[in-house]
């Protein structure tokens, strides 16, 4: 069989090796050290925000953001139904209730109308997700948040460097949260970052990240806090990755272009939508086939797997898993069974994409005759 093509793969060069080795040799292997400061400052500059707070992963970053904003028991936070489970779980960790709403069929981001319809007197925040690297429509969401005095938190875990009306994500609401898991746009192994322009939120998040220790009195803890710190070793990886992010994003844009060139989209097949007001980070190539159902989609992924090509299904809707309240979100439900993510990573070549596209086209031909029968 030809060489296997994974769905995702980190790009780690000798730069990462050098910086990590440097961190190890410096002795600063825990959560103090020069790389932490460099990574936080570099990431803040990159996102065009005043503050960036490095954390242990994206999930703890989301929880920290919510906690620092004072969200807890008795409150509701609106989140989209089609996302990674961490978005809703982070809300639940605070004691607040995640309220799951439908998505926009093009951007796959939170539907503004659905969010408006879900606001109650208990609603405290809206947390849109820039799913698969495409920004949610932030201006109307910001207007909605202002109108109802709600906090606006971007789950930007999948969208480093994506832009909304020319502005990078992460500073479009009260705060943004990024993930540096191994399959994200840049990685620190595990890791995350909270971004904000709000000095008070920055101050609170830094205190809560460190067990709410009083900054002027050691081992005096002001309230219930957490250990959500990032290590200097992780940050060394992060600094190296951040220095290459422009090339990473350019390659992802090229990859999207290659898929558009080689995948046959004539038979109700769609690739990533990109709104006129956005540039996607193309975290994952998205293939949607209108005539798919869950079983045809599984057969399609097995067809690719037999040819050495890894793929992954769209997320399940959160409401269908029973952890949270059942939701009636038809667009999210429909998308979750017709969507497949195709290989998207820095070292994927045009020839690789052509090979994937040929398998995709062939698989869709075989299955469409089955679907018609
Ligand atoms: C990856 C991801 C997270 C969580 O990040 P971790 O670093 O894995 O904890 C949160 N939200 C979304 C949308 C994600 O894709």
Explain this structure to me?
By secondary structure, the protein is an alpha/beta fold. It folds into 2 domains: 14-242, Aspartate Aminotransferase, domain 2 (3-Layer(aba) Sandwich), CATH 3.40.640.10; 245-372, Aspartate Aminotransferase, domain 1. Helix content is 39%, strand content 14%. It has helices at 14-26, 34-47, 58-68, 86-93, 112-117, 138-147, 199-209, 232-242, 245-262, 294-306, 330-338, 350-372; strands at 51-55, 76-80, 97-101, 123-126, 151-155, 163-164, 167-168, 175-179, 192-196, 269-270, 278-279, 285-289, 312-313, 339-342. The strands form 3 sheets. A 7-stranded mixed β-sheet has the order 1-9-8-5-4-2-3, sandwiched between helices. A 4-stranded antiparallel β-sheet has the order 10-12-14-13. Strand 4, helix 6 and strand 5 (151-155) form a beta-alpha-beta unit. The longest helix is centred in the C-terminal third of the chain and has 23 residues, at 350-372. The site of pyridoxal-5'-phosphate (PLP) has 14 residues, from helix 3 and helix 4.
Which cofactors or ions or other ligands sit in this model?
pyridoxal-5'-phosphate
State which percent range the strand residues make up: 5-15%
* Low confidence ranges: none
What's the total number of strands? Answer: 14
- Name the CATH superfamily assignment of the largest domain: Type I PLP-dependent aspartate aminotransferase-like (Major domain)
* Average predicted local confidence, pLDDT: 97
Oligomer: single chain
| Largest β-sheet summary | 7 strands, mixed
How many structural domains can be distinguished in the coordinates?
A: 2
- CATH class category label of the largest domain: Alpha Beta
* N-to-C CA distance: 31 Å
């Amino acid at each position: 069989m030809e060489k296997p093509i994974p769905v995702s793969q980190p790009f780690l060069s000798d730069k990462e090796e050098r910086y990590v080795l440097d961190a190890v040799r410096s002795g600063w292997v825990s959560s103090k050290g020069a790389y932490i400061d460099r990574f936080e400052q570099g990431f803040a500059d990159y996102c065009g925000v005043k503050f960036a707070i490095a954390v242990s992963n994206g999930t703890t970053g989301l929880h920290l953001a919510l906690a620092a904003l004072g969200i807890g028991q008795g409150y509701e936070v609106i989140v989209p139904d089609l996302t990674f489970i961490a978005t809703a779980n982070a809300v639940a960790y605070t004691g607040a209730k995640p309220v799951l709403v439908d998505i926009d069929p093009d951007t796959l981001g939170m539907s503004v109308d659905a969010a408006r319809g879900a606001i109650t007197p208990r609603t405290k925040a809206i947390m849109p997700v820039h799913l698969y690297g495409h920004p949610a429509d932030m201006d109307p969401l910001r207007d909605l948040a202002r109108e109802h005095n709600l906090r606006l938190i971007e789950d930007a875990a999948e969208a480093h460097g994506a832009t909304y009306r020319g502005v990078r994500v992460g500073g479009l609401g009260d705060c943004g949260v990024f993930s540096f898991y191994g399959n994200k746009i840049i990685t620190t192994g595990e890791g995350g970052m909270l971004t904000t322009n709000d000095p008070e939120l920055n101050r609170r998040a830094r205190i809560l990240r460190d067990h709410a220790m009083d900054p002027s009195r050691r081992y005096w803890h002001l309230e219930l806090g957490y250990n959500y710190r990032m290590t200097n070793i992780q940050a060394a990886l992060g600094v190296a990755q951040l220095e290459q992010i422009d090339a990473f994003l350019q390659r992802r844009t090229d990859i999207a272009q290659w898929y558009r060139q080689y995948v046959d989209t004539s038979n109700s097949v769609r690739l990533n939508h990109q709104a006129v007001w956005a540039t996607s980070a193309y975290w994952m190539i998205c293939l949607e086939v209108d005539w798919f159902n869950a079983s045809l989609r599984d057969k399609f992924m097995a067809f690719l797997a037999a040819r050495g090509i890894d793929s992954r299904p769209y997320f399940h809707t959160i409401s269908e898993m029973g952890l949270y309240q059942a939701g009636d979100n038809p667009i999210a439900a429909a998308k979750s069974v017709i969507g497949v993510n195709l290989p998207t990573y820095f070292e994927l070549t045009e020839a690789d994409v052509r090979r994937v596209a040929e398998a995709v086209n062939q698989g869709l031909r075989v299955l469409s005759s089955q679907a018609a029968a």
